[in-house]
């Protein structure tokens, strides 16, 4: 699958560079984090958590690289607009979207066009699309 990107630069700037998550921590772990923050090792709790996650991802980098290659995942951001999907439709093809990062279907894509051109969606990270497009692809999102 070849990544498609014909998104105008003005639309690219709308994509957030992060996704908000919520985690639950035990009081002792939270206390340790607060101690390190108060001692100036980290700017705040978020800085500590981001650093810990990056360190863990760095440690597991080779395993991630192998899985990305084995599962043929696109790494990073992959966006699809109406023009992209109309090109796929005109070629009589369907896409199997596989992304590690962010997959985004633009607001100009109708549910019918998405259903006609997207065979499956597998995203490890975040999948942004309108509620109508997500509903049209509900049985194809894994």
Can you walk through the features of this model?
The protein is α/β, with parallel strands linked by helices and 142 residues long. It folds into 2 domains: 33 residues; 79 residues, no CATH class. The protein contains 7 helices and 3 strands, in the order H-H-H-H-E-H-E-H-E-H. About 6% of the residues have low confidence.
Write a short abstract of this structure.
One of its GO terms (biological process) is regulation of DNA-templated transcription. Helices cover 44% and strands 20% of the residues.
Keywords:
2 domains, elongated, alpha/beta, three-stranded parallel β-sheet, 142 residues
SSE blueprint:
Blueprint: H1 9-12, H2 27-38, H3 45-59, H4 61-70, E1 74-80, H5 82-90, E2 95-105, H6 111-117, E3 118-128, H7 131-136
Helix pairs in contact: 5-6
InterPro entries: RHH_8, Ribbon_hlx_hlx
Protein name: Arc/MetJ-type ribon-helix-helix transcriptional regulator
Organism: Acidovorax soli
Q: N- to C-terminal separation?
A: 17 Å
Radius of gyration: 19 Å
**Helix content range of the residues, please?**
40-55%
Shape: elongated
Q: Can you give the mean pLDDT?
A: 89
- In terms of quaternary structure, the protein is single chain
| Strand residues, percent | 15-25%
H/I helix tally: 7
Tell me the structural class.
Answer: alpha/beta
Regions with little confidence, pLDDT below 50 for 5+ residues: 5-13
Count of all domains:
2
Order of helices and strands: HHHHEHEHEH
Could you tell me the number of beta strands?
A: 3
- Tell me the major beta sheet: 3 strands, parallel
